[in-house]
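Late entry, written up from scratch paper. The run itself happened at the end of the previous shift, but nothing got recorded in the book at the time, so transcribing now.
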Amino acid sequence: MAHAFRVFLVLAILASMSLLHPRDVQAQQSEDKSFDAETSYQNLCSACHGELGEGQIQSGSGLVPPPKDFTSYEAMATLTREEMISTVMQGKPGTAMMAWEKRLSIGQAGEIVDYIRDKLMQSAKAEEAGPGSVIFAENCSVCHGDKGDKGVYATSGLNPAPRDFTDDKARRELSRDRMIYSVTHGRPGTAMTSWGVRLSDEQIVHVVDYVRNSLMFPMGEEKWMAQNMAAAPGGMAAGHEHNLHWDLEDIAKPMPFSLNGDFEQGKAFYQDSCYVCHGEHGDGKGPRSHFIFPKPRNFTQSYSLYKFSREHIFYSISDGVVGTEMPAWKQVLDRQQIADVTEYVFQAFIAPNLPEGYVAQMAVKLQQRPAAMGHSHGGGQHPALPWDFIMWVLVFMILTLVWALVGKPPSDPRSFSLPLTRVPVLAPVVRYLNSSAKPVATLKVVAVVFYLLVIVSGIFGTVHAEHNFATVMVWGLWWPLVIISVFFLGSAWCAICPWETLSKLTVLRKLWRRPDKSRERTAKVPLKYRNVYPALALFMGLTWLELGAGVTNIPWATAGMAVVMFVLASACLMKWERKSFCRYFCPVGRTIGYYSRLAPIEIRPVDNDVCASCTTMECYHGTTEIEPCPTHLTVGRFGQNTFCISCGSCVLSCPHKNVTWRLRAMDKEATTDSKAQWDGAWFMLGLLAITIFHGLTMLPPWGQSVAWLSGVLGEGDPLLLTFTILMLVGFALPVALYALCIYGIRLTAPKAVSFKQLFSKLAFASLPLAFAYHLAHNLDHFVREIPDFFKVLMNPFGVGMRPLTWMERHILMMETPVPDWWIFLGQSLLMVFGYWVAIKIVRYRARGGLRGGGDLTGVQLLPAHFFVVAITVFNLWLLGQSMVMRL
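Output as recorded:
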């Protein structure tokens, strides 16, 4: 009956979701008479096309081709209503225009198009361009285009491409004098020739004024500057902040690497080396500035004032500026010296020219940003799991809870196992892997190559995390895939772990064969370390580095973490027998091991009787060629995946060929087979707490909490103490809730076993809750945040790559390889899976929960069920929130 009930519920949910397809939901919404076209345009379209439809908003400045200018005569003459509706619904290939058919009905798209045509397109007015328009049309438009936005006539053959005058970067950088100089003398290294010999000075002035007044600033230069430069605190309204290519708060960003610059030391170096270009007063008018093009940076102009934070200045000095004569000073100066110069430039030229108190105000806003503490590069937010999907999970939860409370006590679960050598498609692969150690050794070498590339690129590559192989590989690809792989392959990653492979090569001088007796260590790990507390502590430490220190956005720190893991693995191999690091200390290995209790595969005997009669136990002791089990396991005598690292030694060493991989029921081990242990209970609860905490740090209230607590503590950047306190609180709350629920069971069942026994037995319920949310969370990251991996692989150091703009991040996040509703469905089913297994674990693990061997049942288990429901609902709520991007 229970099996039939499960099948019925899952089928009912899938059927309901298929009936309520997102397109149908949107079709129903089209009947909503409260739909407002103007509001929808401002919310959905203005980020690229501008509030007035001029296509000149800041977030669109990084898009190629640029957004459509609806106010142009070209748009009025060529765009039909039907074409525009089709573009809104289906998107436009080759541009950043995405398809909105999943979010808008055809009727709603038509209303938005009508608003554009009636209110924006008709507002285009003829310009009194004067003689400059004729000069531009005859001489300049062939390259720059009729509208100054890089025309199609000569662009394809020019490198670099002609200047796009409608780009906001051009509006900020191109002064009138600079443009007159460029037209007169040309631009070396480009197709821009000298026009001084063909045009008079007066004609050059006319054409420059035409470009500036009609193409660059049709709304007026002063108005554009007022809207986009926010020259005073009063201009910092929320409506202007999103217009900037950078965030206003960025001006308050601290020095990278927690450095503190020395003003006097920086002043001495600046006056000795920098003033010759940038000038004594930072105005870009140094003695050499007359011979440099483009001109050196003027730190006192408004464009620089609101962008050049300590962080920005530091990296500009360190890495140089491509396309200018600004060199990369990291080849000459160390980080502290660069920080000194940065501090002088910021204090001498930037801060004094900003409004009084401006930096302090922005520092407060910076602390309140959702991206604070570990996600500072987030440029957009993940779409939340829609309520329609959450609703069906909640319905399933209610029905399952009723069944759990009133249903019959559980009997022994059905056993199921199938050797993979009998599965048609997988059998040849498994037989090949079982044939010798060479296939796995080959995969180990491949993993080591990628691992070494992570280290080298992290140290020597670009500082931009989204273009560095180290950060993209480790945080964007490897970690999400490791967790996802457990769902299908168990602890298979441990079999090819590069830390273990390199440490073995370094210490034992062997890749897969058994090392010489002289190199094998016989010392045992001290008794006090023979538990998983060290791994739990290291896992919390990695979480602190990831979220607190923000190593996900620091390539060299990511590389450093990889080196540290290798050093720890090597140190353990040099000191203690076998692979003690894998067994007791590795935070990744123990996480995989505990999650593998829910994996569908296991390494077990083909025939238990053969193992029972075996006296030589090569699986444990090894052979002359094959090393012994690295984690002290004997096949046939263990029933859990927790400490198996899938190395395959037992498969190769067994003389009876009685060991193989096999399929099994995913919940069997966590439900009945695994032994309850006190340290294991804490590790499983730790996994749950850390996964929840990770989601919390990506929500808007997180930044507010950090700002509030840091204010109470009086802590300045970096806010490491603040983060540490919040992390410990975040870890303690789920554990405290669980402990209270265990006390609740003892109140409802006075004859229950001891608190410690119940705590250890029922903690298994936290494992599927953590695993399901971890998978759902990583699924979203993996699908939405990975840049083109092959491009990163081809350029692992990120040479010549600039940081992604806000809109590029937004497009990366929204243009997923699969429809959004597939992601939402996957997340929903994962939450159903985690909840169902957790409820089953509570029911099965409660057997023998009374002193004397009786079972806890029904209402007696209500506190434990409350814990499962509360955690699942909270995790659903987390998935239902918009979260900032990680890379």
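The first helix runs from residue 2 to 19.
(Scratch paper discarded after transcription.)
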